[in-house]
Amino acid sequence: MDRHDAAIRSTLVSVWVNLVLSIAQVVIGLLARSQALVADGIHSLSDLISDFVVIAANRQSRLAPDANHPYGHYRFETAASLLLGVLMLGVAAGIGWTAVTRLLSPASIPVVHASAIWAAALALLAKELLFRYMLTVGRRVDSKMLIANAWHARSDAASSLVVLAGILANSFGFPLGDPIASLIVAAMIAQMGGQIGWAAMSDLMDHSAADEEILAIEHAVAGVSGVRGFHDLRTRTVGDFVLVDIHIEVDEFLSVRDGHQIAESVHRRLKAIPKVLDVMTHVDPVPAARL
Protein backbone atom coordinates (compact mmCIF):
# COMPACT_ATOMS: atom_id res chain seq x y z
CA MET A 1 0.00 0.00 0.00
CA ASP A 2 1.55 3.36 -1.03
CA ARG A 3 1.30 6.61 0.91
CA HIS A 4 -1.68 7.88 -1.05
CA ASP A 5 -3.74 4.70 -0.73
CA ALA A 6 -2.89 4.43 2.96
CA ALA A 7 -3.95 8.03 3.56
CA ILE A 8 -7.25 7.62 1.73
CA ARG A 9 -8.15 4.30 3.37
CA SER A 10 -7.27 5.30 6.94
CA THR A 11 -8.95 8.68 6.56
CA LEU A 12 -12.17 7.11 5.24
CA VAL A 13 -12.23 4.85 8.30
CA SER A 14 -11.83 7.95 10.46
CA VAL A 15 -14.62 9.72 8.55
CA TRP A 16 -17.16 7.00 9.27
CA VAL A 17 -16.15 6.60 12.91
CA ASN A 18 -16.31 10.34 13.56
CA LEU A 19 -19.59 10.73 11.67
CA VAL A 20 -21.32 8.10 13.80
CA LEU A 21 -19.74 9.36 17.02
CA SER A 22 -20.51 13.04 16.44
CA ILE A 23 -24.19 12.36 15.74
CA ALA A 24 -24.56 9.95 18.65
CA GLN A 25 -22.72 12.16 21.15
CA VAL A 26 -24.58 15.35 20.29
CA VAL A 27 -28.01 13.68 20.25
CA ILE A 28 -27.47 11.69 23.44
CA GLY A 29 -25.72 14.64 25.08
CA LEU A 30 -28.70 16.91 24.43
CA LEU A 31 -31.21 14.31 25.63
CA ALA A 32 -29.12 13.43 28.67
CA ARG A 33 -28.39 17.13 29.40
CA SER A 34 -24.63 16.70 29.35
CA GLN A 35 -22.67 19.71 28.12
CA ALA A 36 -19.44 17.70 28.25
CA LEU A 37 -20.82 14.98 25.96
CA VAL A 38 -22.15 17.58 23.50
CA ALA A 39 -18.73 19.29 23.54
CA ASP A 40 -17.07 15.96 22.82
CA GLY A 41 -19.52 15.44 19.96
CA ILE A 42 -18.58 18.81 18.50
CA HIS A 43 -14.96 17.78 18.86
CA SER A 44 -15.72 14.63 16.86
CA LEU A 45 -17.41 16.80 14.25
CA SER A 46 -14.26 18.90 13.96
CA ASP A 47 -12.37 15.66 13.34
CA LEU A 48 -14.75 14.88 10.51
CA ILE A 49 -13.96 18.25 8.94
CA SER A 50 -10.23 17.66 9.43
CA ASP A 51 -10.52 14.28 7.71
CA PHE A 52 -11.83 15.96 4.57
CA VAL A 53 -8.97 18.46 4.78
CA VAL A 54 -6.50 15.55 4.91
CA ILE A 55 -8.10 13.86 1.89
CA ALA A 56 -7.98 17.08 -0.13
CA ALA A 57 -4.38 17.85 0.85
CA ASN A 58 -3.22 14.31 0.12
CA ARG A 59 -4.73 14.48 -3.37
CA GLN A 60 -3.16 17.90 -4.02
CA SER A 61 0.29 16.85 -2.77
CA ARG A 62 0.45 14.03 -5.35
CA LEU A 63 0.37 16.45 -8.27
CA ALA A 64 3.47 16.40 -10.43
CA PRO A 65 5.92 19.35 -10.35
CA ASP A 66 4.97 22.22 -12.64
CA ALA A 67 6.24 25.67 -13.61
CA ASN A 68 4.88 27.26 -10.43
CA HIS A 69 5.85 24.36 -8.14
CA PRO A 70 9.13 22.94 -9.51
CA TYR A 71 9.76 20.97 -6.30
CA GLY A 72 6.31 19.41 -6.30
CA HIS A 73 3.29 20.05 -4.08
CA TYR A 74 4.42 18.25 -0.93
CA ARG A 75 3.98 21.28 1.29
CA PHE A 76 0.24 21.00 0.88
CA GLU A 77 0.49 18.26 3.52
CA THR A 78 2.29 20.65 5.86
CA ALA A 79 -0.33 23.32 5.19
CA ALA A 80 -3.03 20.76 6.02
CA SER A 81 -1.33 20.02 9.35
CA LEU A 82 -1.27 23.75 10.08
CA LEU A 83 -4.97 24.01 9.25
CA LEU A 84 -5.70 21.09 11.58
CA GLY A 85 -3.89 22.89 14.39
CA VAL A 86 -5.83 26.11 13.83
CA LEU A 87 -9.10 24.16 13.64
CA MET A 88 -8.39 22.49 16.98
CA LEU A 89 -7.60 25.85 18.60
CA GLY A 90 -10.93 27.24 17.33
CA VAL A 91 -12.87 24.26 18.67
CA ALA A 92 -11.10 24.59 22.02
CA ALA A 93 -12.04 28.28 22.29
CA GLY A 94 -15.73 27.56 21.62
CA ILE A 95 -15.95 24.69 24.09
CA GLY A 96 -14.02 26.59 26.74
CA TRP A 97 -16.27 29.65 26.47
CA THR A 98 -19.42 27.56 26.90
CA ALA A 99 -17.92 25.75 29.91
CA VAL A 100 -16.92 28.98 31.65
CA THR A 101 -20.39 30.41 31.07
CA ARG A 102 -21.95 27.34 32.72
CA LEU A 103 -19.52 27.44 35.64
CA LEU A 104 -20.50 31.04 36.35
CA SER A 105 -24.10 29.86 36.81
CA PRO A 106 -23.79 26.63 38.83
CA ALA A 107 -27.48 26.64 39.82
CA SER A 108 -28.44 26.08 36.19
CA ILE A 109 -26.35 22.91 35.81
CA PRO A 110 -28.72 19.90 35.45
CA VAL A 111 -28.18 16.32 36.65
CA VAL A 112 -26.92 14.26 33.72
CA HIS A 113 -28.87 11.15 32.70
CA ALA A 114 -27.10 7.77 33.01
CA SER A 115 -27.27 7.19 29.24
CA ALA A 116 -24.50 9.76 28.83
CA ILE A 117 -22.14 7.50 30.79
CA TRP A 118 -22.54 4.64 28.33
CA ALA A 119 -22.21 6.97 25.37
CA ALA A 120 -18.99 8.48 26.73
CA ALA A 121 -17.53 5.03 27.46
CA LEU A 122 -18.26 3.75 23.95
CA ALA A 123 -16.82 6.93 22.42
CA LEU A 124 -13.64 6.50 24.48
CA LEU A 125 -13.16 2.94 23.23
CA ALA A 126 -13.86 3.84 19.58
CA LYS A 127 -11.48 6.80 19.58
CA GLU A 128 -8.63 4.92 21.22
CA LEU A 129 -8.91 2.11 18.67
CA LEU A 130 -9.04 4.67 15.85
CA PHE A 131 -5.89 6.37 17.17
CA ARG A 132 -3.93 3.12 17.29
CA TYR A 133 -5.01 2.19 13.77
CA MET A 134 -4.17 5.58 12.23
CA LEU A 135 -0.83 5.91 14.03
CA THR A 136 0.22 2.46 12.79
CA VAL A 137 -0.62 3.41 9.20
CA GLY A 138 1.04 6.84 9.46
CA ARG A 139 4.30 5.37 10.80
CA ARG A 140 4.31 2.59 8.21
CA VAL A 141 4.15 5.03 5.29
CA ASP A 142 6.11 7.75 7.17
CA SER A 143 3.55 10.54 6.69
CA LYS A 144 3.65 13.53 9.05
CA MET A 145 0.13 14.47 8.04
CA LEU A 146 -1.32 11.05 8.90
CA ILE A 147 0.60 10.92 12.16
CA ALA A 148 -0.71 14.39 13.06
CA ASN A 149 -4.26 13.24 12.31
CA ALA A 150 -3.69 10.14 14.45
CA TRP A 151 -2.62 12.22 17.43
CA HIS A 152 -5.68 14.35 16.82
CA ALA A 153 -7.68 11.16 17.34
CA ARG A 154 -5.71 10.40 20.53
CA SER A 155 -6.62 13.83 21.89
CA ASP A 156 -10.23 12.83 21.26
CA ALA A 157 -9.77 9.61 23.24
CA ALA A 158 -8.24 11.55 26.12
CA SER A 159 -11.05 14.08 26.03
CA SER A 160 -13.65 11.29 26.09
CA LEU A 161 -11.96 9.91 29.21
CA VAL A 162 -12.24 13.30 30.90
CA VAL A 163 -15.86 13.59 29.76
CA LEU A 164 -16.66 10.19 31.23
CA ALA A 165 -15.11 11.22 34.55
CA GLY A 166 -17.05 14.50 34.56
CA ILE A 167 -20.36 12.80 33.82
CA LEU A 168 -19.75 10.26 36.58
CA ALA A 169 -18.95 13.09 39.02
CA ASN A 170 -22.18 14.84 38.04
CA SER A 171 -24.19 11.65 38.50
CA PHE A 172 -22.74 11.11 42.00
CA GLY A 173 -23.72 14.53 43.30
CA PHE A 174 -21.04 16.90 41.98
CA PRO A 175 -22.87 18.94 39.32
CA LEU A 176 -19.81 21.05 38.43
CA GLY A 177 -18.12 17.89 37.14
CA ASP A 178 -19.78 18.14 33.73
CA PRO A 179 -18.73 21.73 32.83
CA ILE A 180 -15.32 21.22 34.45
CA ALA A 181 -14.83 18.24 32.17
CA SER A 182 -15.77 20.45 29.21
CA LEU A 183 -13.17 23.01 30.25
CA ILE A 184 -10.47 20.36 30.60
CA VAL A 185 -11.36 18.99 27.18
CA ALA A 186 -10.99 22.49 25.73
CA ALA A 187 -7.53 22.86 27.29
CA MET A 188 -6.41 19.45 25.97
CA ILE A 189 -7.62 20.26 22.47
CA ALA A 190 -5.88 23.65 22.57
CA GLN A 191 -2.57 22.09 23.66
CA MET A 192 -2.60 19.48 20.91
CA GLY A 193 -3.69 22.02 18.31
CA GLY A 194 -0.88 24.34 19.33
CA GLN A 195 1.72 21.57 19.06
CA ILE A 196 0.54 20.42 15.63
CA GLY A 197 0.23 23.98 14.34
CA TRP A 198 3.67 25.02 15.60
CA ALA A 199 5.35 21.95 14.07
CA ALA A 200 3.70 22.69 10.72
CA MET A 201 4.67 26.37 10.92
CA SER A 202 8.27 25.34 11.62
CA ASP A 203 8.32 23.19 8.47
CA LEU A 204 6.84 26.00 6.38
CA MET A 205 9.70 28.23 7.59
CA ASP A 206 12.29 25.88 5.99
CA HIS A 207 13.20 23.99 9.13
CA SER A 208 16.29 21.80 8.70
CA ALA A 209 16.11 18.01 8.52
CA ALA A 210 16.31 15.87 11.66
CA ASP A 211 19.78 15.17 13.10
CA GLU A 212 19.70 11.51 12.07
CA GLU A 213 18.82 12.48 8.50
CA ILE A 214 21.70 14.96 8.36
CA LEU A 215 24.08 12.28 9.65
CA ALA A 216 22.88 9.90 6.92
CA ILE A 217 23.53 12.60 4.30
CA GLU A 218 27.03 13.31 5.63
CA HIS A 219 27.88 9.61 5.69
CA ALA A 220 26.64 9.14 2.12
CA VAL A 221 28.69 12.08 0.77
CA ALA A 222 31.85 11.02 2.61
CA GLY A 223 31.57 7.59 0.99
CA VAL A 224 31.68 8.86 -2.60
CA SER A 225 35.01 8.25 -4.33
CA GLY A 226 36.77 11.48 -5.32
CA VAL A 227 35.14 13.65 -2.64
CA ARG A 228 37.95 15.16 -0.55
CA GLY A 229 35.63 16.95 1.82
CA PHE A 230 32.43 18.97 1.94
CA HIS A 231 31.04 22.06 3.61
CA ASP A 232 28.03 24.41 3.65
CA LEU A 233 25.63 21.49 3.97
CA ARG A 234 22.12 22.89 4.21
CA THR A 235 18.80 21.07 4.39
CA ARG A 236 15.16 22.13 4.46
CA THR A 237 11.98 20.18 4.81
CA VAL A 238 9.29 20.02 2.13
CA GLY A 239 6.34 18.10 3.51
CA ASP A 240 7.76 14.73 4.55
CA PHE A 241 10.83 15.15 2.32
CA VAL A 242 14.16 17.00 2.42
CA LEU A 243 15.96 19.29 -0.02
CA VAL A 244 19.76 19.31 0.20
CA ASP A 245 22.35 21.95 -0.79
CA ILE A 246 26.02 21.04 -0.40
CA HIS A 247 29.51 22.12 -1.51
CA ILE A 248 31.83 19.21 -2.28
CA GLU A 249 35.60 19.49 -2.50
CA VAL A 250 37.57 17.74 -5.28
CA ASP A 251 41.17 17.70 -6.50
CA GLU A 252 41.90 20.97 -8.33
CA PHE A 253 43.74 19.12 -11.08
CA LEU A 254 40.68 17.12 -12.14
CA SER A 255 39.03 17.98 -15.44
CA VAL A 256 35.62 19.64 -15.48
CA ARG A 257 34.18 16.35 -16.73
CA ASP A 258 35.65 14.37 -13.84
CA GLY A 259 34.49 16.92 -11.27
CA HIS A 260 31.04 16.82 -12.77
CA GLN A 261 30.95 13.01 -12.60
CA ILE A 262 31.86 13.11 -8.91
CA ALA A 263 29.05 15.61 -8.30
CA GLU A 264 26.67 13.31 -10.18
CA SER A 265 27.77 10.41 -7.96
CA VAL A 266 27.01 12.51 -4.88
CA HIS A 267 23.63 13.39 -6.33
CA ARG A 268 22.75 9.74 -7.01
CA ARG A 269 23.97 8.61 -3.58
CA LEU A 270 21.87 11.21 -1.76
CA LYS A 271 18.78 10.62 -3.89
CA ALA A 272 18.98 6.98 -2.79
CA ILE A 273 18.14 8.14 0.73
CA PRO A 274 14.32 7.70 0.95
CA LYS A 275 13.51 11.16 2.33
CA VAL A 276 15.80 13.18 0.04
CA LEU A 277 13.66 14.79 -2.66
CA ASP A 278 16.34 16.76 -4.54
CA VAL A 279 20.00 17.75 -4.27
CA MET A 280 21.93 20.83 -5.37
CA THR A 281 25.72 20.36 -5.45
CA HIS A 282 28.49 22.92 -5.90
CA VAL A 283 32.01 21.72 -6.80
CA ASP A 284 34.95 23.44 -5.08
CA PRO A 285 38.52 22.63 -6.27
CA VAL A 286 41.01 22.27 -3.44
CA PRO A 287 44.84 22.40 -3.72
CA ALA A 288 46.97 19.32 -3.18
CA ALA A 289 48.18 20.69 0.14
CA ARG A 290 44.69 20.19 1.59
CA LEU A 291 44.39 16.58 0.34
From TrEMBL:
**Molecular-function annotations in GO:** monoatomic cation transmembrane transporter activity
Q: Which UniProt keywords apply?
A: Membrane, Transmembrane, Transmembrane helix, Transport
Q: Where is this gene product found?
A: Membrane
Listed under GO cellular component are: membrane
What stretches pass through the bilayer? 12-32, 79-100, 112-135
Its topology with respect to the membrane? Multi-pass membrane protein
Subcellular location, principal: membrane
Keyword DNA repair part of the UniProt annotation: no
What range(s) does the Cation efflux protein transmembrane domain occupy?
12-205
**Which InterPro entries does this one have?**
Cation_efflux (IPR002524), Cation_efflux_CTD (IPR027470), Cation_efflux_CTD_sf (IPR036837), Cation_efflux_TM (IPR058533), Cation_efflux_TMD_sf (IPR027469), CDF_Transporter (IPR050291)
Q: Which residues form the Cation efflux protein cytoplasmic domain?
A: 211-285
Q: Which NCBIfam families match?
A: CDF (TIGR01297)
What protein family is recorded?
Belongs to the cation diffusion facilitator (CDF) transporter (TC 2.A.4) family.
Q: What is this protein called?
A: Cation diffusion facilitator family transporter
